[in-house]
Amino acid sequence: MITRQQCKKIIDLALAYARGKADGIEVMVSASDVATSRFANNEMTQNQAPYSVGISVRVQKNGRQARVSSDDRSPAGIRKLVDNALVAAGFLEKDEDMLPLYQPSGKNGAAATNRSDAKTAKLGPKDRALAVKEIIAVAKANGLNASGVYSAGQSVHAIGNSQGLFEFHQETEAECSITMTGGNSSGWSKSHQTQADRLNPKRLAELAAQKALASANPIELPAGHYTVILEPSAVLDLLGFLWYDFAGTSHTDKLSCLLGKVGKKVLGDNITIEDNCKHSMQAGSSFDGEGVARRTLTLVENGVIKNLVHGRRSARDFKTEPTGHGVTEPSSMGEYPVNLVVAGGDTTVEEMIRTTKKGILLTRVWYVREVDPTAKIVTGMTRDGTFYVEDGKISAGTFNFRFNVSLIDLLNRVVALGPSERTAGEETFPAVVPAMKVTDFNMSSTTRF
Amino acid sequence: MKTGANMQKLAEYALEVANESGASYADVRIIHQESQVIETKDLAVAGVNIGESSGVGIRVLCGGGWGFASTQDITRKGLAKAIKTAIETAKASASCLEHPVTLAPESAYNAVWVSPYTKDPFAISLETKVGVLLAAAKIMKAVKGVTLAQGEMTFIREKKYFANSEGSRIDQTFIRSSCGIVAHATGKDDRQTRSWPNSFGGQHELAGWEMVEKWDLTGNAQRIAEEAVALLSADPCPQGVRDIIIGSSQLGLQIHESCGHPSELDRALGQEINMAGASFLTPDKLGNLKYGSSLVNLVADATARGALGSFGFDDEGVLAQKVYLVKNGIFTGYLSSRDTAHMIDLKRSGGAMRSESWNKVPIIRMTNISLEPGNAGTLEDLIADTKDGILFESNKSWSIDNLRYNFQFSTEIAWEIKNGKRVRLLKNASYGGITPEFWGSCDAICGPSDYVEWGLPNCGKGQPMQTMWTGHGASPARFRNVQVGMAHAVKGDE
């Protein structure tokens, strides 16, 4: 993997070459070395070990800016990259909205987050195969089919600019997701961690297998409004559609469902959300797309919308300080909260089930899409472990449902919260969220399985 | 980027090393890609991103298992290292196999293929491109009530050299272009959006700058801006069961989700079940399932000129083909690959293995999945033939279950039709159903004059996720007794 020193050398070379040619230059180096073993029907189907390093420069000249990217790390390639960016900027009209590059104020910049694990970085194809064999053994022992992925590796991200900025972040990651299928049922589990030791593929396989077995011979329930227990993955893949509504730019562009609602009580008393890159269950760098240190920020406190996140341009427009959530510039998006932590409670999923007379337990939601941006209605499907809860017990697996729900309404009807945990889904990046029990969840139709 | 003879020599070297390392099969893809992405927001340039990427993807079979590795170090040393990784990875795969990989036979080709275009988009200045987008933005912003105007163009040139251990040597060049504009109107507790030529990035084609001229962004800016504002005060889409007409671009996405994905053979065999899902079109239904009405003919055509999902050869060197997925309403075929063909007794791959880039492994993807035109005339003829219905146009949201039965779509705009005429603008329009029932209710398809090959640039599949360029040709079509308006029916009592 490319080192801090190698990144610094690339960045310094680009800065030196651009001196006198550009008014400002920002250089980013990103690298990824994450290998993935895929399995299906109890055998390995794909096994990939890609490795890539990319360089990207943003130049500013005469009030214009352009970004150019390449993967040519040679000195000649870096010089060509800077030249191309200058040529591209020269073709553009003056950007009245452009800000000069970020100038770090403190000596130490963003306090680094240590998310690199030597053991995880060294995992190879044999290690991944061992994990896959363990998963397949659980499937076979239960008469099921296992499918899924086991991946591990590391990534690097560095940024520097002509204002004296240099930040570097290295991180390892390991992910395991498993679908166990039986004759007419399925179960799923997933975990994404910065250390492979935290994954426990066998335990994930057992969880998925339990769900597949428990949902065998599903019954078909009618569409309607149900009390629903959402496991953390289901919560995450729904709430992911709210995150951009906390971006300052989504408010200036009049795109947010929270327009005019900052400072007001919009969600239930029990909803508190923060963005906190330093949280022990979070991942990612401590600086944003322009190198600004990420701040911990309360977005929602007891249902009241407290803060928005701001990149530098949005902060200027709102006459406030940037919060360290800017995306790579230039961009129309502006900023994005990426280290979400939704405050939990102390009600376990088992306790939620025990206190439910009639309801549905959801393992996972799928293909969630926004259908109304202002009412924040989303649609989607349930899958891989949907259960009917009756008189405090899981009584059967059910056919899957399509839902149409307003996320604002949903977050006003949360009657119980589980402990927050690092959670991975498929619709958005991992976050720290709890299980939730909500009332009046609109299941609008069913499907055939 | 290595070119010509040098690149070919490196590919030969890589195949030789793979063979010496014990690979029973190997293929090498050397790819160079250039891209330009231009975004405007209101009357300013929001982003210009110019990219270049080169690398090699190497796939090997060893002990019956697949291994894949990639490298940006396009030298003998770099390739040898990547092959070592690919071989180790393949051996690890083989240790978790009960059924060694079997490849369907394919001829060896020595070919050069270039996608059709008349005006090289990389020869058009950034100034001209930005000028078109800003001119359209100026028109949209002049319409009272428009709160945000956006524009986007993307141009990609991809050069791909493929060589495999069976003797194929294939050189392909792709030029892809796209353009689109969007007008947003935000009112009190409501936001409405209109796009042109299509939503989510506009239209995408295997073509050059001529496609930008054809779609005439400035000529359509005023209309979509006025429609976005008019939607704020439009009536909501009613709830219930109605006859519906689906416009060409929305029908393209309907085909993508409800026919394209379920006919991918890897899904049908359960290989994608963990994330992208499986398929209700299981092999036992091949040749006997009534997928749609007898009017419905759906084809996977990788040879369609200018369509986004076309190519000369797929990413495992299989010649582009035209395969019927649904013929006269009956499910008849799959999108397939060399390693899945034998599982349903196909003699040959259907040629659908595609990879996003040099650092991703090829997987079964859609090519151009299209509905053949019918004989219902033009859209206006079809409206005139409809007594009581709703016309849906331009996608706003899409969702379908993991076996591809239950779908729900929303569109940016809709019109109520009464006695053969559009009588009322409708907002927040949605429709949904169950795939075979829905296609079974198709009773009219417009003719070739209204047929458009729509392009989708971002079809997601695989783990890690890959996006892909797919095409979907469609003329507007009518469907009887379809559930509408369910997306906004969210209130109720427990």
- β-sheet strand percentage of chain A: 35-45%
Rg calc of chain B: 24 Å
Give the number of domains of chain A: 2
Number of helices of chain B: 9
Which structural class do the helices and strands of chain A define?
alpha+beta
Overall shape of chain A: it is: globular
Terminal Cα span of chain A? 45 Å
H/E element order of chain A: HEEEEHHHEEEHEHHEEEHEHEEEEHEEEE
Report the biggest beta sheet of chain B as strand number plus sense, adding barrel if it closes: 8 strands, mixed
Number of domains of chain B: 2
Show the largest interface.
A-B, 101 and 91 residues
Uncertain segments of chain A are: none
Mean pLDDT across the residues of chain A is: 97
What this model shows, in words?
The complex is a heterodimer of chains A (449) and B (494). Chain A is of the alpha+beta class. Chain A has ten helices and 20 strands. Chain A has helices at residues 4-18, 75-91, 118-121, 125-141, 201-214, 232-239, 248-252, 312-318, 349-354, 407-410, and strands at 24-40, 43-49, 52-61, 64-70, 145-161, 166-181, 186-193, 224-230, 273-275, 297-301, 304-305, 340-342, 358-372, 377-390, 393-397, 401-406, 414-417, 421-423, 431-433, 436-446. The longest helix of chain A has 17 residues, at 75-91. With 494 residues, chain B is of the alpha+beta class. Chain B folds into two domains: 4-233, PmbA/TldD fold, CATH 3.30.2290; 236-488, no CATH class. Helices cover 21% and strands 39% of the residues of chain B. Chain B is built from nine helices and 24 strands. In chain B, the strands form five sheets. In chain B, strands 1, 2, 3, 4, 5, 6, 7 and 8 form an eight-stranded mixed beta sheet that branches. In chain B, a hairpin with a 5-residue loop joins β17 and β18. In chain B, α1 (4-20) packs parallel to α2 and α3 packs parallel to α5. The chains are: A alpha+beta (449), B alpha+beta (494). At the A-B interface, β1, β2, β3, β4 and α2 of A face β2, β3, α2, α3 and β17 of B.
